[in-house]
Design brief:
single chain
């Protein structure tokens, strides 16, 4: 006499852990920038059930479906669990929200006139993306005439946008003469 005990058809899980984060309830995880794979560990309710994982490698920026297929001990009953793994995409936004010279709004390419003797200007360059970096050059050491101020914005993904301003520092209007020397003789008239 042979007694054949049917194997369990239980495909339930007690935990799903992706990259050391329990996602059993949420079925979602956001990784770090540039992640291309995640590790997945599953604990099944029935110790005799097995599982396989697909979609956990070759991840792209954005949402990726990682599929966990649990096969019950009866080897015919299966159930899929989908975990959405999101890989953040670095922003390519290198645009400016605000550009000001000495607290006055300007636009890239503008020429801003300043009085004679101006040696520096205060540049405010606020980006649309808080993760972009701004480097300003040419805003100090200004001289009479045309001076170029450059603003380089580097987006999170490395995209670079360059903005320029021209600062026109007025020439001196001083026409006074402090001395006149002719043949080594000071001929400056005094008043």
């Amino acid at each position: 006499l042979t007694i054949n005990v049917a194997q369990s058809s239980n495909t339930n899980v007690t935990s799903i852990v992706v990259d050391n984060t329990n996602v059993t309830s949420s079925k979602a995880l956001t990784t770090g920038f540039g992640a291309t794979s995640v590790t997945v560990a599953v604990v099944t309710e029935d110790a005799n059930a097995t599982y396989s994982v697909s979609g956990n490698t070759g991840l792209n920026g954005g949402a990726n479906n990682v599929t966990i297929t649990v096969t019950a001990a009866d080897t015919t009953t299966t159930k899929n669990y989908i975990v959405v793994v999101t890989v953040p995409v670095a922003s390519a936004d290198a645009t400016l929200k605000t550009l000001k010279v000495d607290n006055v709004a300007v636009t890239s390419g503008d020429t801003i006139s300043k009085p004679n003797g101006t040696t520096s200007v205060a540049i405010i360059a606020e980006t649309n993306d808080a993760n972009a970096d701004v480097v300003v050059s040419g805003d100090t050491g200004l001289e009479s005439g045309l001076n170029t101020v450059s603003i380089a914005v580097t987006a999170e993904d490395g995209t670079v946008a360059n903005y320029t301003l021209t600062i026109n520092v007025a020439q001196s209007s001083n026409t006074n003469v402090t001395s006149i020397v002719v043949d080594n003789t000071n001929v400056t008239s005094s008043k």
